[in-house]
């Protein structure tokens, strides 16, 4: 069965300094930089990186070192030190004012071990590890990045960041934070120089929505929520493949795991009408999958996401084998659209049973954020939602695996776990058999 990990709840005290603005270490241009047509996510992204004690860094204060590295990095990434403005037509622009980003240093009376193992979201201590200045949280006219470095009793530390999603996607965030890490390790410039060039993702004639949407009754799934993280090692992934005919067993890990999760989620939610259409939406990084034929220069750190979508009625997903759901994903991957997710989200913003968004963060580059203490034990988003989930890489039982944080109301979560384990329990074999299956 799939290994599940529930979030660890701990109580600790944090002594926090006053938030301060960190500005570029050298003068930077004052200018207005327009954002692209894909820079439309008006929300904040919250992430944490957990770093263990490193004896080679004894006597080095991570907060002081990182603060200095931020100032040096902002010389190159100076738009992050500015503020987003909105024009009369709604077009967004970054005014490069050089005002800086918010930085806080803190100390916590807790060790890294007390957060549990493996480290999995959600982390219930966000307010302790990432303090938000009350007047800083708006999307417009506010600092674009907030960072808190929290030193731990064990000598490790936690790096927390809140970043305005309008500025960049997961890959762009990792590029910026990795640059801070490089500067903290002694570099004089980032190995990947930032490129703005947002005009390359402006569209003269944005595609029109291709589907008609039926707005269903609001069901925001907000009550009695439960959070669990499901760990899929190669053993579980091989077990899922055994449900597929031989010609589909060459599917990717993303395809087989996502198809299984979607199928189990539909069963767990017990949609009122099995004829109701349910959608699965996932982002496609246009840097590596340039199906829209737009050249994206190396070093581009803006939002460069298209979207693929799969749809079916609940009845068809439940009554057909897993290969049916998998084929829906494969068909959806053949077409990438820049507006499908935005259209789907705005039209069905309350229809949370119907729509599910999945993001694969295994290749975003978060693992490369190294301030000199080595790789983080965990680095990525803080929490999932009933309508949103993601993957990330993990070492489990000495093997590379993936973790899928999941959130649903209690009874639905119980049904989801039962459905997933029913798929797996009769298909688990030995490591030798798994190795054979993985080659098919």
Structural features, described:
- This protein has 440 residues and is α+β, with helices and mostly antiparallel strands.
- The protein is built from 10 helices and 17 strands.
- Strands 1-11-17-16-14-12-13 form a 7-stranded mixed beta sheet, sandwiched between helices.
- The radius of gyration is 22 Å and the shape is globular.
- Residues 206-218, 344-351 and 429-440 have low confidence and may be disordered.
Amount of helix: 10-25%
pLDDT < 50 stretches:
206-218, 344-351, 429-440
Question: What is the molecular shape?
Answer: globular
What class would the helix/strand composition place it in?
alpha+beta
The Rg value, from CA coordinates, equals 22 Å
Question: How are helices and strands ordered from N to C?
Answer: EEEEEHEEEHEEHEHHEEHHHEEEEHH
- Quick one: how many beta strands? 17
Largest sheet: 7 strands, mixed
The average pLDDT score comes to 85
In whole angstroms, the N-to-C terminal distance is 22 Å
User: What's the tally of helices?
Assistant: 10
Q: Which oligomeric form is depicted? A: single chain
Note the beta-strand portion.
15-25%
Chart the SSEs and their pairings.
Layout: E1 3-5, E2 14-16, E3 20-22, E4 32-34, E5 44-51, H1 62-73, E6 83-86, E7 92-95, E8 101-108, H2 126-129, E9 145-151, E10 157-164, H3 170-184, E11 225-232, H4 234-241, H5 253-269, E12 277-285, E13 305-313, H6 314-319, H7 322-333, H8 340-347, E14 355-360, E15 378-381, E16 388-396, E17 399-409, H9 410-425, H10 431-438
Parallel strand pairs: 8-9, 12-14, 14-16
Antiparallel strand pairs: 1-11, 2-8, 3-8, 4-7, 5-10, 5-15, 6-7, 9-10, 11-17, 12-13, 16-17
Helix pairs in contact: 1-3, 4-10, 5-7, 5-9
């Amino acid at each position: 069965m799939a290994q599940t990990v529930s979030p660890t709840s701990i109580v600790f005290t944090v002594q926090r300094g006053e938030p301060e603005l960190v500005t570029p270490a050298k003068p930077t241009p004052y200018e207005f930089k327009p954002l692209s047509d894909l820079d439309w996510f008006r929300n904040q992204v919250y992430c944490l990186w957990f770093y263990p004690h490193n004896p080679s860094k004894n006597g080095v204060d991570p907060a002081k070192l990182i603060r200095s590295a931020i100032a040096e990095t902002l010389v190159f990434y100076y738009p992050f030190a500015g503020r987003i403005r909105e024009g009369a037509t709604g077009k967004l622009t970054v005014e490069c004012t050089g005002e800086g980003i918010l930085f806080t240093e803190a100390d916590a009376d807790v060790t890294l071990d007390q957060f549990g193992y493996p480290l999995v979201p959600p982390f219930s201590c966000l307010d302790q590890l990432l303090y938000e200045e009350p007047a800083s949280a708006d999307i417009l006219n506010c600092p674009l990045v907030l960072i808190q470095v929290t030193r731990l009793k064990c000598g490790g530390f936690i790096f927390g960041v809140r970043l305005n999603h309008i500025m960049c996607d997961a890959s762009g965030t990792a590029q910026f934070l990795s640059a801070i890490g490089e500067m903290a390790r002694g570099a004089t410039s980032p190995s990947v120089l930032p490129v703005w060039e947002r005009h390359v993702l402006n569209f003269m004639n944005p595609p029109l929505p291709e589907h008609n949407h039926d707005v269903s009754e609001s069901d925001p799934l907000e009550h009695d929520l439960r959070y669990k993280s499901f760990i899929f090692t190669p053993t579980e992934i091989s077990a899922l493949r055994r449900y597929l005919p031989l010609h589909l067993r060459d599917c990717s890990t993303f395809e087989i795991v996502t198809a299984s999760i979607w199928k189990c989620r539909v069963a767990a939610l017990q949609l009122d009408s099995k004829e109701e259409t349910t959608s699965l939406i996932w982002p496609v990084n246009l840097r590596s999958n340039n199906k829209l034929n737009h050249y994206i220069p190396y070093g581009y750190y803006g939002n460069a996401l298209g979207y693929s979508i799969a749809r079916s009625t609940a009845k068809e997903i439940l009554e057909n084998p897993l290969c049916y759901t998998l084929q829906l994903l494969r068909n959806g991957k053949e077409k990438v659209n820049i507006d499908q997710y935005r259209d789907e989200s705005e039209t069905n913003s309350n229809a949370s049973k119907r729509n599910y968004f999945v993001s694969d963060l295994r290749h975003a580059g978060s693992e490369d954020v190294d301030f000199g203490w080595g790789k983080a034990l965990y680095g990525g988003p803080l929490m999932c939602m009933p309508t949103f989930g993601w993957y990330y890489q993990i070492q489990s039982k000495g093997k590379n695996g993936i973790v899928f944080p999941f959130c649903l109301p209690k009874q639905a979560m119980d049904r989801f776990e039962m459905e997933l384990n029913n798929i797996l329990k009769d298909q688990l074999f030995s490591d030798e058999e798994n190795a054979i299956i993985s080659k098919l």
